[in-house]
Amino acid sequence: MSQLIFNQPSEDKSALEDAGDFTPRFDDRGLITAIVTDAGDGELLMVAHMNAQALALTIQTGTAHYFSRSRGKLWKKGETSGNLQTVKEIRTDCDQDAIWLKVEVAGHDATCHTGRRSCFYRTITLRDGKPMLDIFDDELHFDPQDVYGK
Predict the structure, then answer these.
(1) Could you say which EC number(s) this protein's record lists (predicted)?
(2) Cα–Cα nearest to 27, from 58, 52, 63, 57
(3) Interval 55-66: pLDDT, tens
């Protein structure tokens, strides 16, 4: 499989906003933000980052790949857990500096390394003047210790 090469973003705003060449705008670290939702029900599953290689692999294979900032390396989502993300649609925003992936999740239908369906399983509330976290989705779809051995 040959590597996709992305053209440099145009300085012409209308070229960025029209149909035509996809010219993603990576940040100064070479990353672009990826928002990931369930293709069926629209649930927000995760937010991640992609470098050019991860974005190209995602487009070419139809399986979501990301760049892990904490590990500093390419990451095929679900490779360890079996919860692979099959990409059904890829969108970009008006200035092409963010990606939206609509995916179907295999395996346990869970995206978060905690075993939950979504990485967004907590709400932030103000109690006694202090922001606090509350868990609203405590359903585990898999045991992270069994999957990741942590």
Answers:
(1) 3.5.4.19
(2) 52
(3) 999 999 999 999
